[in-house]
Amino acid sequence: MNLVHSLLLLFLVAAILVQGRSVVSSKGIFIGVDNTDPNASGADIFRDPRNHATAAASVIGFASKQSGFRPKEQGLRTTLREFQAFHQKIVMFPGFMLTQRPYSNLDLTGDLDQFKEQISANYVSIMGKADVAATAFVEQIPESAEPESSGTWTLVLVTIYDDESNNIFVDIASIEVEVSVNGDGSVSLRAQIAKLNQSTVQVITGVLIANADRFGSAIQTKKIETFKDELTTANSEVRSQLLKDWLFGSNHACKSEFPLVHRRQRLYPLLQL
């Protein structure tokens, strides 16, 4: 039995090295000035427009929990399906309005500096901060990794923008890239055409105010720093967790508890509580 078990492990390792695996990495950032009352919580987060950056962070936390998209907690066990479910819940939240959905092709040479330049040139930023987004994307690629982490990586960036006029936006961007791990363990991008996808929603102030009691009782208050922390995958996990997940398994890859829904069901997140 031990021999069979050992052969099975060797087979799994060989399969990983040949095929690679799909990796989802995420980062949460905030751009602007947070004017939220530090003592506000619950309904007050939604009732006062000065607190709406934190309201956006709270809705993101709610969507993260409901969809199973928890990058800090799950690390690289996070699946693309969970990210897609999270994305759908943000776009369909009744207090958000979809304002743009741009996408761009990135012509990559394999050089990380050129990757950053391509993102800066193509990322559509609400406040002209494409360079900040580019840095956040590049930071998700570690300097070194295990050989089995070669494969398709989906890099996710969730950004809350506050333009200081109580206009709050949430942008969800993703880039799917092919990553190679060299013989010395260093990580590099392959020359490729990668696609940058974005979805930007704006907080509808009137809807949040009108439904402050309802939203406040259903959605746990999340501060900006908590949002940034919970939506970020640690690079240490990128370097160390992959082989363990492959060898010993994870139920997340087959999990689908939160199917996508039609826009006519846009109130479903609150009705399911």
What is the gist of this entry?
With 273 residues, the protein is an alpha+beta fold.
Keywords:
globular, alpha+beta, 7 strands, 13 helices, 23% strand, 41% helix, 273 residues
Describe the structure.
This protein is of the alpha+beta class and 273 residues long. 41% of the residues lie in helices and 23% in strands. It has 13 helices and 7 strands. Strands 1, 2, 3, 4, 5, 6 and 7 form a 7-stranded mixed β-sheet that branches. Helix 3 crosses helix 5. The longest helix has 18 residues. It is globular.
* Backbone CA Rg: 20 Å
Shape: globular
Estimated structural class: alpha+beta
**Helix content range:** 40-55%
Order of helices and strands: HEHHHHEEHHEEEEHHHHHH
Quote the beta fraction: 15-25%
Give me the number of helical elements.
13
Give the uncertain stretches in residue-range form.
6-20, 250-273
- Please state the average pLDDT score: 83
Count all strands and give the number.
7
Oligomer state of the chains in this structure: single chain
N-end to C-end Cα span: 47 Å
- Biggest β-sheet strands, sense, barrel: 7 strands, mixed
Write the layout of secondary structure elements.
Elements: H1 2-19, E1 23-32, H2 43-47, H3 52-67, H4 71-74, H5 80-92, E2 96-100, E3 103-108, H6 112-122, H7 130-138, E4 151-162, E5 168-181, E6 187-189, E7 192-203, H8 205-210, H9 212-218, H10 224-230, H11 235-240, H12 242-248, H13 268-271
Parallel strand pairs: 1-4
Antiparallel strand pairs: 2-7, 3-7, 4-5, 5-6, 5-7
